[in-house]
Amino acid sequence: MNAKYRASSQLQARLELLQLRAAVERQSLAVHTQQLGLQLSPKHWLDKAHDLRGGQLLTKGFSLALQYPYLTSALASMLVRRRWRALKWTGLALAVWQTFYMAKNKNF
């Protein structure tokens, strides 16, 4: 009887521990989801972009494009359309300008 009671109490303690762990993980997920929502909000991005200069903003855009390839793919598909041709050439010119600008700063 004592062994059955001990096994039963150990099982109850294990179940309680697993329920507690699940509750902590749910709470952690909720907090991280809320923080991610705040970080991805347009207001947060505009506040961060306001502090950057032109070259830094462009560099940040390139790093963001590398970090999120699906976003880059969606933007590229939009740029392929005929009405976006001028924007595509402008983007290319800005990329070339940024490359020359960064190369010039490394030489000095």
What does it look like?
This protein is mainly alpha-helical. The protein folds into 2 domains: 1-40; 53-108, no CATH class. It contains 5 helices and no strands. The protein has helices spanning 2-39, 42-50, 54-67, 69-80, 85-107. The longest helix is centred in the first third of the chain and has 38 residues, at 2-39. The model has no long low-confidence stretch (mean pLDDT 77).
Descriptive keywords:
108 residues, mainly alpha
Short précis:
The chain contains 5 helices and no strands. The protein is mostly helical and 108 residues long.
Q: Any low-confidence stretches, pLDDT <50, length ≥5?
A: none
Q: Average pLDDT value?
A: 77
Give the DSSP E fraction (strand runs of 2 or more residues).
under 5%
> Distance N terminus to C terminus?
84 Å
Biggest sheet, in brief?
A: none
Counted up, domains total: 2
If helices are DSSP runs of H or I spanning 4 or more residues, what is the number of helices? 5
Order of helices and strands: HHHHH
Radius of gyration: 26 Å
Instruction: Classify the helix fraction into a percent range.
Output: over 70%
Outline, from the CA principal axes?
A: elongated
Number of E-state strands? 0
Find the structural class using helix and strand composition: mainly alpha
Question: Which helices and strands appear, and what pairs or packs with what?
Answer:
Elements: H1 2-39, H2 42-50, H3 54-67, H4 69-80, H5 85-107
